[in-house]
Design a protein that fits this description.
This protein has one domain (3-70). It contains five helices and two strands; from the N terminus they run H-H-E-H-H-E-H. The protein has helices spanning 3-14, 21-25, 39-42, 44-47, 61-70; strands at residues 28-32, 51-55. By secondary structure, it is α+β, with helices and mostly antiparallel strands. The relative contact order is 0.18. The longest helix is centred in the N-terminal third of the chain and has 12 residues, at 3-14. Strands 1-2 form a two-stranded parallel ribbon.
Amino acid sequence: MKDWLTTEIQNCLDADNSLPLQDILADSLFYPAAGVDGSPVRHAKRLGVNSFVYVDTITSEEKLDETFILQPFRG
């Protein structure tokens, strides 16, 4: 992950400002119906992405937490 991204996010959180979403989402990978597939994260450098937006409307937050306990996210 690029240093400017983590530094800028931390500065915004420290200053209680809104996150610079357009900057953060630039060069991001949107992954609909992602489930717990970590392969894009494993290949982030080759894909040229700085962040990920994982979306899966079928899985509840509770089910996702349970799944990660039994099958940790690998990426």
